[in-house]
Design a protein that fits this description.
5-stranded mixed beta sheet, 1 helix
């Protein structure tokens, strides 16, 4: 019987041309596509031919003339991309990609989110990403198989460092982990004989309004989008001692002394020559004359 075998470009087959075989014999035809091409064997399967691994066609017990044409087609692979919630993946090609082609994936997290993981066929490639001018991308080159590109996202985390002196209560003292977009509330209680002196946020005086409720002072950092450093300072209250000297019912001199709250101080009295201390008043109350008074 006569066997006629031909094929399209981009591949070869064994026994190409016309051959005569004996009745009842077998013929094994090797199919050899060029790189990045394949042959569609579906129509031969419908005719009942036996195909081995898409590379060999076996004609068994030949009892008639046979004409075969092998068509080679470009191989197309599917490259799928899956973005988790809170972010997107943009690509420069369709899902179907030609053999040996390439795809560039651009990854864009939503506001307040960042990339958590990047997998190509279940293998982490997060350390292989390219970042240029805040644009994050990955190029998949020389595609020779189907692939899955998958990205997940997580909320950004920031640190708010709070520092203060020890003469008052400060909530959130130390390092505070804050999720992007969240608020951080502060409560301040000055210690005994102290008051709030200043709040410094990232090197600048904090000027937003403060809320007062009894001894408690409160404020909040709203919609945090970056790391912050907060310095909170309390200062001790001061008291003034005002001194007046009267000579023979005539005002002579006065002076003031400033001391910290709860601090001790002593005032001494001395008369000029030919004078004696007649009376001493503390807050308008007369005390026994002496050479000193201790507060």
């Amino acid at each position: 019987y006569e066997i006629n075998i031909s094929c399209s470009p981009h591949g070869h087959v064994s026994y190409e041309g016309t051959h005569r075989v004996m009745c009842g014999s077998n013929l094994e035809i090797a199919v050899m596509p060029d790189s990045c091409y394949h042959w569609n064997s579906d129509y031969l399967l419908t005719l009942g031919y036996s195909i081995d691994n898409d590379s060999t066609l076996l004609l068994v017990d030949i009892h008639h003339d046979i004409t075969l044409f092998f068509a080679f087609e470009p191989t197309i692979y599917q490259v799928t991309s899956i973005a988790g919630s809170n972010g997107s993946i943009f690509r420069d090609s369709d899902v179907d990609v030609a053999c040996d082609g390439h795809v560039i994936f651009t990854i864009k997290p939503d506001e307040c989110f960042e990339i958590d993981s990047v997998f190509l066929d279940n293998n982490s490639i997060i350390n292989s990403l390219d970042t240029i001018n805040d644009i994050i991308s990955y190029e998949l080159r020389h595609i020779l198989a189907n692939h899955e590109f998958r990205v997940t996202f997580k909320p950004k985390q920031f640190v708010v460092q709070v520092v203060g002196n020890d003469i008052g209560y400060i909530s959130n003292i130390g390092n505070n982990d804050v999720t992007c977009g969240d608020n951080l509330d502060f409560k301040l209680v000055p210690g005994d004989c102290s008051n709030l002196d200043s709040i410094i946020l990232d090197g600048e005086i904090y000027t937003s309004p403060l809320q007062y409720l009894g001894d408690t002072i409160s404020f909040s950092l709203i919609n945090i989008q970056e790391d912050h450093q907060v310095f909170i300072y309390f200062k001790q209250n001061t008291r003034h001692i005002h001194e007046q000297v009267v000579l023979d019912q005539i005002f002579f001199s006065e002076q003031s002394a400033t001391v910290f709250c709860h601090e001790d101080t002593t005032i001494t009295f001395s008369s000029n020559d030919c004078w004696i201390t007649d009376s001493i008043f503390i807050n308008h109350e007369r005390i026994t004359p002496s050479t000193s008074y201790h507060f």
